[in-house]
Amino acid sequence: MPVEGHDGVIFPATYAASEDKTFKGGYNIDVLSDGRNVCLIDSVGSQANRIEPRFADAPYDTLVPQVVIVAGEKRVNLLEAGHRAGDAIARCSGIADDLKQGFRAVLAGDAEPLARIAPTSLVFGVWDSRDTQAKVPRLLTSTVRAYDVHELHRSAQYIPAVEYVDNGLLEEPTDKATGDLYSSRGFKHVPASWSHGGVIASGGVRRDAALHLVALRQLGAKDEKQRRLLQQYILGLAVAAFTMPSAGYFRQGCNLVVDPDKPTALMAVRRDGSRKPSAITHAQSIEFASKAAAAFGVAPAREVPFDKNRAKADVTAESAGKKGKAAKRAK
Fold it and tell me: How far apart are CA 254 and CA 11, in angstroms?
């Protein structure tokens, strides 16, 4: 629920318009056939990108390798990369060859090499779309949605501290470009009318998370012993992430807290659809994950450089590929 209360205003994520303009941009609100609606507050991808970086902090940091890529003056932990092991910053770094071998092993049915470098990529899913095309499904999915929302709007008016033109501090703009420049730099009055003003969720807000054990069983290794160690290790990471206390501050104007009248329900769902409550705690998850990590073996932390030459070659190869496709279409 919103921190302000059940009737509080929350700001969902906003999205750009679709290329065909079917979606004009703004909030992702779907209207159902019965007239009700559902508004996306935080997507599966966004939730994954909020949870995964927390493995860089205690008590989770000892469970996974801490790989830091140095790109200029910036240091980026691989856990922060939006596309995980398939991200451009990883593909063009000192771990590029190791990752390629890991993805090739995945294609051959062995996920252990990738787990030695980027185990959370096996938890939150990864697709090496720019190279080997290896793809690993998400074990953990989480989405936040609001129901029966009423969309609001807001307007604003920027008033400069001084009337710059009237007081002779700036010359009167003689063309639209100059006038626009005055506005963008804060020297003119600027109205902002009827922009997105958040939503009120009369049907409540709900976070749904699922841990898919069926997908976990698909992870293979070179032999049965290593397969069990690998699956237990990835299970430990996944359960730790699954039971991790949710961070409810998503963005300015969207701070959610647990609704005390609707406590969290944790259910074990079997293949036949039967359900029963699960009592697993986060503390138990951490204990299991720590034992599984010790048995599997966690690689030591390392720091690798971003490779500008690899990045240039990557862009050149992509450009050449597109030109080749265009030439084929022309023929």
Answer: 5
